[in-house]
Design a protein that fits this description.
The chain is built from no helices and 8 strands. Strands 1, 2, 3, 4, 5, 6, 7 and 8 form an 8-stranded antiparallel sheet that branches. The radius of gyration is 13 Å and the shape is globular. It has one domain. It is 0% helix and 59% strand. By secondary structure, the chain is an all-beta fold. The termini are close together.
C-alpha cells in the first residue's frame, strides 16, 4: 500500500510512546472536520518538540487506499475516537508519498 504523511497536530498521550493526533477529515457531506486518534510516536513526525500538553504541528504516516479528485481514502495507524481507522482527507493535506 502506498504511504504518505498527513498534516496534523499532535500532543502527548497517556503513555510515553503514544500521542493524540488531530487530523483534518472530509465528511460524507463534503464538509471539513477534525477528528482525533491515538498514534504511536514512531508514526508521527513532529515539526517542533512537544511542550507540556500543547498541540504542535506534525505529520502522521498513513496508507493510501484510493483517491477521487481532491479527496483520498487513507488508513490511519490506529482507530479514530469514533471507531474507524479509515478516513477521507483532502489531497492538499498530504505530504509526499511512497
Amino acid at each position: 500500500m502506498p504511504e504518505a504523511h498527513l498534516r496534523c497536530q499532535a500532543r502527548r498521550g497517556l503513555f510515553d510512546e503514544e500521542m493524540i493526533v488531530t487530523i483534518p477529515i472530509v465528511t460524507t457531506g463534503n464538509a471539513d472536520k477534525e477528528a482525533e486518534c491515538y498514534a504511536w510516536s514512531d508514526s508521527v513526525r513532529l515539526d517542533t518538540p512537544l511542550r507540556g500538553d500543547e498541540k504542535v504541528e506534525a505529520t502522521l504516516r498513513v496508507g493510501i487506499l484510493h483517491g477521487q479528485g481532491r479527496e483520498v481514502a487513507v488508513v490511519l495507524p490506529q482507530e479514530m475516537f469514533h471507531g474507524s481507522n479509515v478516513a477521507m482527507v483532502r489531497t492538499e493535506n498530504l505530504v509526499g508519498s511512497k
